[in-house]
Amino acid sequence: MTTAKDIMHPGAQWIPRYETLDRAAQMMRDHGVGALPVSDPENGDRMCGIITDRDIVVRCVAEGHDPARVTCGDICEGTPRWIDAASDISLALREMGGRQIRRLPVVENKRVIGMISEADIARHLSDDQLAEFVHRVYA
């Protein structure tokens, strides 16, 4: 069985919900990623959302807001999706395809330990599985 931990990119970086979007963008640049899990220090550093580079552009900059004044917590919304590290990769594919999400945090012992992205999926699936995944996410 291939698990989420087997295919994830390890070492996902967190950003606290009180940090500003300009700091999130700097972290994304420095780590070469397009998304960061957002933690809530007031709730035991549990994940309270995820922020993407697209969120920063579309929900802040394009609306005329200052990324130095808007926090990650201001634009995180909804229940964050994640997968347990020991879960079969088929569960990750269903979660990502069913919710049309492109990145999925991987959690072990209630802590984010990595992230599954489209690139990780592409490296570990057959061509047929990859085609089905792409159809579900982008349909």
UniProtKB/TrEMBL annotation:
PROSITE patterns: CBS. InterPro entries: CBS_dom, CBS_dom_sf, Diverse_CBS-Domain. It comes from the Bacteria. Keywords: CBS domain. SMART domains: CBS. Residues 8-67, 75-132 form the CBS domain. The keyword Heme does not apply. PANTHER family: CBS DOMAIN-CONTAINING PROTEIN (PTHR43080:SF2), CBS DOMAIN-CONTAINING PROTEIN CBSX3, MITOCHONDRIAL (PTHR43080). This is CBS domain-containing protein. It comes from Streptomyces broussonetiae.
